[in-house]
Amino acid sequence: MASKRNRDGGDTERAHNSSDEHHKRLAGTDGSIDGGSDGSYHDDEVGHCHMRVGDYIDGRYRFIRQGGKGTFGLVLLCEDEKYKKLVAVKVVRKIRKYLESARAESCILRDLVRADPDDKGFCVRILNSFEWRGHFCIVFEPLGISLYDLVKANHFNPMPLYAVQAFADQVVAAVVFLHRMGLIHTDLKLENILLGDMNPLQKSHRTVHLRKKIMVSMPMSTSIKLIDFGGAAYFFEQGNGVICTRQYRAPEIILNFGWGRASDVWSLGCILMELYTGNLLFQTVRQPPPIFPALPHLTMKTTMHSLCTSHNTQISFTSPPTPLSLCVA
């Protein structure tokens, strides 16, 4: 089933979290990350830190296990010795562009906390940030797996209708909150929406689209949080660059017409259809034929025109569409 989904990562610095790499768990049976044989902290040749269970970050955060690995760096589950609670620490690689992006992200995250003191905006909460041995670290509340991992755990079957509705309510509210703040996320996708529930998934029979009942693995709670604000931009910063991961990229971005709030809304629509059907709405091919370099633009134009004008096309929630293939450079 997984072969149906061609999820190449984004080709921009803004969309630098590849789906499988970002959520791969690499902690070994001895508790080490990528081998750290002597149990001491060290960096590898690409700027990732290596440490063992029980090592401390900044003398305060005791490492428990690795939660994720991405192009930006590592996410580590730690215990905050000061407040005796679990936290997630994002340790950014010693690469200048990622360090700068992380510093900008921490500023945006603090803006979010100031604008949402009651934590009703469905966005991840920053707890602390600091420099440590050349890395920039951001401390977050601990969260569960991503919605991509949830769909993957269910073999890319449709999500139950109650979950689709609950996720939709919260993600829409999060995007509305950001836009009212004057922020554009720029990289909305399943990988950047995490469950609030860290407990194991529970199996049960649930109703999906077309009123079918199937066995699914679901969290006890459908609460979610939006993450990854490293590429977020305020309205006055919006421009003509390429943003978003390919499968969620709006037509105006592909056609170089500039981007703005509407680009987030397009990505949101792709996310909801993916949850509802279990399939990517727009499959992509990494490279167009060299004989026709303008094919990505023409493909998007043709596809959108067909969707909008065909008398035989009915877009409804009783007949989910077949995923469309777009060739995106």
Q: Average the pLDDT over all residues and give the rounded result.
A: 81
Low-confidence stretches: 9-39, 313-329
CATH class of the domain at 12-140: Alpha Beta
The spatial strand order of the largest sheet comes to: 3-4-5-6-8-7
Shape call: globular
CATH topology group of the domain at 12-140? Phosphorylase Kinase, domain 1
Structural class determined from secondary elements: alpha+beta
**So how many helices?**
7
What is the number of strand segments?
A: 16
Structure description:
It is a single chain. With 329 residues, the protein is α+β, with helices and mostly antiparallel strands. It has a domain at 12-140: Phosphorylase Kinase, domain 1 (2-Layer Sandwich). The protein contains 7 helices and 16 strands. The strands form 6 sheets. A 6-stranded antiparallel beta sheet has the order 3-4-5-6-8-7. Residues 9-39 and 313-329 have low confidence and may be disordered.
